[in-house]
Write a structure and sequence with these properties.
With 479 residues, the chain is an alpha+beta fold. The chain contains 10 helices and 19 strands. Strand 17 and strand 18 form a beta hairpin.
C-alpha cells in the first residue's frame, strides 16, 4: 500500500511538472496562434474583419458643428473688438457611404476613393440647420487675399452694389455647405468665376482621393499605411521634403500590435499634412482594452519650440516671424483662400489670438483631438477629430468695409468635432470573435501552468514528508 502511495505521488509530480511545462510552452505557442489569426484578419481583403470595417465604418461617424455667432458686427467694422458666442451642435452623419472604386493591386496595395456625403441629424442638434446666425461674410473677407491689388477697386464696387458687408446672416446649411453669394455674382468671371462659397463647399457629392494603401498581405506591419494620395507619394503644399511626407494611415485603423511607446502617425487631407498622436492612457471601453493617443501640444508648437514645424511656417505676418503657435496655414492647399486651421477656441495657440476677440474659452477635455485604439488589432474604437476653421483678413484703405478695422484678424467661423464610438453590437461582435478567443487561450495557459505547479508542489512536498517520516521511523527502530 505504501509503495502504491509513493508511486502515485511520483506520478502526480511528473504529471504536475508536465502540465506546468505545457502551460509554459503554450505561452509562446498561444502568442503565435494569436499573431497568426490577427495577421489573417487584419488584412484589407474581402472576408476579413478588417475589410468589413474598412469598406464602411462599423460604427456611425458624425460631424458636430458649432457656429461662431458675432454679437457686435457694426462695432467690429468700426474698429471695435469682436464678441463671439458659439451656437451648436449641429450634427451630420458622414462616412456612411462605402468606399468607391476599390481595386486590389498586384503590389499588395489597394486603391480607393472616399465619397463625401453629410446627412443632417435633427435629433442630435440644437435646432434645424435652417437656423440663422450672424457670421463672417466668407466672400468679402477672403476676396482681398485672393484678388490682385489691381482689382481691389472692383471688389469694393461689387461689395457696395450687392449691399454686402463684412458680416452677414446665413443659415447653418448655407454656412457649411455653400450658397450663391450676391457679392461674388457682382465680380467679373475673370476675377472670380465660381459664385458659390461655403466653409466646406464643395463637399456633398464629391470624392476624396484616390488613396493607395498597403493591404497587409505581404507585410502586416504596413497594413492601412498610405503610400500614395492623388497619384503622388508626397504632398506639394509645403515645398519641403519633411513636411510634404505622407505618414501613417487615415486613423480609421492602424497596423496591429500597437506599441504605446511609439507615436501613431496619420494623414488628413483636410489639414493637408500628416500628424501624430502620443500615448496618454489605457482604459476599457465596453469591455475592450484601449490605448488613447492624443494630439500633443508640441505637434502644433511654434517652430522656435519645435524645429520640425519650420516648414509649416509659410509667412511672416500671421506667424509673427514664425514665433506663433497652434496655427496651420492652408492657403497653399485651398487654392489661395486665406483659410487657417487651429484647434477649437484656439487651444494651444498663442495668446495674441485670444486677446484679439472675446468669447472663446479653450478646454482640453472638449477641444482636444484623440484616437482610441485596440492595441492587438490596431482597430480604432473611438476617436474625436476637433478643428477650427478661421479666415484671415486685415485692414485696407482700398475696401471701405475693411478700412476702419482695429487690426488684422484670424477670425473663427466654425469648429467641428468629427467623432465615432464603437456601437454595442460591434463591441460584442469584436469581443466574441477576437477578445474572447484570445482570453480563452490566456486562461488555458495560466490554468495549465498554475495547476501543474500546484500538483507538482503538492506531490513533491508529500513525497518529502513521507520520506522524512520513513527515515525517522527507521532510526527509531534502531534504538
Amino acid at each position: 500500500m505504501c509503495c502504491n502511495t509513493k508511486c502515485w505521488l511520483i506520478v502526480g509530480s511528473i504529471i504536475g511538472a508536465l502540465l506546468a511545462i505545457l502551460g509554459g510552452v503554450l505561452i509562446p505557442v498561444g502568442d503565435i496562434i494569436i499573431k497568426g489569426e490577427i495577421d489573417k484578419e487584419a488584412v484589407i481583403e474581402e472576408g476579413t474583419i478588417a475589410y468589413d470595417n474598412w469598406i464602411v465604418p462599423g460604427s456611425p461617424v458624425y460631424r458636430q458643428f458649432w457656429m461662431f455667432h458675432v454679437l457686435n458686427p457694426e462695432d467690429v467694422i468700426n474698429g471695435g473688438k469682436p464678441k463671439l458666442v458659439q451656437k451648436g451642435p449641429y450634427t451630420y452623419l458622414v462616412r456612411h457611404v462605402p468606399k468607391s472604386n476599390v481595386t486590389q493591386n498586384n503590389n499588395n496595395t489597394v486603391t480607393f476613393y472616399q465619397p463625401n456625403e453629410a446627412v443632417f441629424q435633427r435629433h442630435m442638434s440644437i435646432g434645424p440647420d435652417d437656423d440663422q446666425y450672424t457670421v463672417l461674410n466668407l466672400g468679402v473677407a477672403a476676396a482681398p487675399g485672393l484678388v490682385p491689388e489691381l482689382f481691389l477697386g472692383t471688389v469694393n464696387t461689387a461689395i457696395k452694389r450687392s449691399n454686402s458687408s463684412l458680416f452677414q446672416t446665413r443659415s447653418v446649411k448655407e454656412i457649411l455647405w455653400g450658397y450663391r453669394d450676391p457679392f461674388l455674382v457682382q465680380l467679373p468671371d475673370i476675377i472670380m468665376k465660381d459664385k458659390t462659397t461655403g466653409v466646406f463647399y464643395p463637399y456633398n457629392g464629391t470624392e476624396d482621393g484616390p488613396y493607395v494603401v498597403y493591404n497587409g498581405k505581404e507585410d502586416i506591419s504596413k497594413v492601412a499605411l498610405i503610400t500614395k494620395y492623388k497619384g503622388e507619394s508626397t504632398l506639394s503644399y509645403w515645398k519641403n521634403d519633411y513636411c510634404d511626407m505622407i505618414n501613417g494611415t487615415d486613423a480609421a485603423s492602424f497596423p496591429p500590435f500597437v506599441d504605446k511607446k511609439v507615436p501613431l502617425y496619420f494623414f488628413s487631407s483636410e489639414i493637408c499634412r500628416s500628424i501624430y498622436g502620443e500615448y496618454e492612457k489605457e482604459y476599457k471601453l465596453k469591455g475592450i482594452k484601449l490605448y488613447r493617443f492624443v494630439l500633443p501640444k508640441f505637434a502644433l508648437a511654434s517652430p522656435h519650440e519645435n524645429p520640425d514645424n519650420f516648414c509649416y511656417c509659410t509667412d511672416e505676418v500671421i506667424s509673427r516671424n514664425c514665433t506663433a503657435a497652434g496655427i496651420l496655414d492652408l492657403r497653399a492647399c485651398q487654392g489661395g483662400k486665406p483659410i487657417f486651421l487651429t484647434l477649437p477656441h484656439f487651444l494651444h495657440a498663442s495668446e495674441f489670438l485670444m486677446e484679439s476677440l472675446d468669447g472663446l474659452s479653450p478646454n482640453v477635455e472638449e477641444h482636444q483631438t484623440f484616437v482610441d485604439v485596440e492595441p492587438i488589432t490596431g482597430f480604432t474604437m473611438h476617436f474625436a477629430k476637433r478643428l477650427q476653421v478661421n479666415v484671415y483678413f486685415s485692414p485696407t484703405d482700398k475696401i471701405d468695409i475693411l478700412s476702419k478695422l482695429q487690426s488684422e484678424f484670424l477670425f473663427p467661423v466654425v469648429w467641428l468635432n468629427e467623432t465615432a464610438l464603437i456601437s454595442d453590437d460591434s463591441a460584442n461582435l469584436f469581443k466574441s470573435s477576437v477578445t474572447t478567443p484570445m482570453n480563452a487561450i490566456g486562461i488555458i495557459q495560466i490554468l495549465f501552468l498554475c495547476l501543474g505547479i500546484v500538483i507538482f508542489l503538492a506531490c513533491s512536498i508529500a513525497l518529502c514528508v513521507r520520506h522524512s517520516k520513513g527515515k525517522k521511523e527507521k532510526e527509531g527502530r534502531k534504538f
